[in-house]
Write the structure tokens for this entry.
Amino acid sequence: MLLGGPILKPFSSPEEWLALVREMRYDAVYFPLDHTAPGALIDAYAGAARDGGLMIAEVGVWRNCLSPDAETARAATEYAKAQLALAERVGARCCVNISGSRGDQWDGPHPDNFTKETFGMIVESVRGIIDAVKPERAFYTLEPMPWMYPHTPDSYLELIKAVDRKNFAAHFDPVNIITNPFDYYHTGGVIREWFAKLGPHIKSCHAKDILLEGRLTVHLGEVRPGLGNLDYAAFIECLGKLPGVPMMTEHMDKQEDAASANEYIRRVEAGV
């Protein structure tokens, strides 16, 4: 399994970055720069990853291309195009975003997020981004979210069919789609369904964990891998059937937490 994650210590050069990556024993990395960095520096970091035998798993966008504010949506879309071009340049497996929210919170719930109109807006947004860049090797992907498309494997398949672009693919984050107590106690089944239905469409995965609290109505919180109830044995087993797809830890504040997450995942992997 290819395991990667964040670098949460400061660095000032490709050499320092690569040393920290090696210290973490990562197989895959998030690209540490965005498209606004100087071209020579971008190429230097890409070269360091290549020389270190590392997969560049993801280039991130994390902007709301469906924002109700027209200028925000326009700027987000232009940023997404530039980040996809960056992913293509450095040889990243994918460029990742979310589909976007119709509300003011860029990644938040809104009553219009699950309408047919919004589904159509997502299709046009994704097509526009891919058609502007015309990537040959990098894929544009959307991370599933609990309160916007794609939120189920079937909605993801429907979106892939509707977008109809060979460089549109899937990203998988199981914690984001565990939204009720039944799924919480059956995370292995949820994970297996997503992999069974999306299979080779999946280009990268995020790794974190989820914890159900005992207070009404339902409170599900994100925690680092090993501190929750996510079935990592099922996750690793399914991922093992898709060679070359990385598992990337995220959303931690300290390098020590990232190291603990890696240790836990590797321990589960050894027992699978």
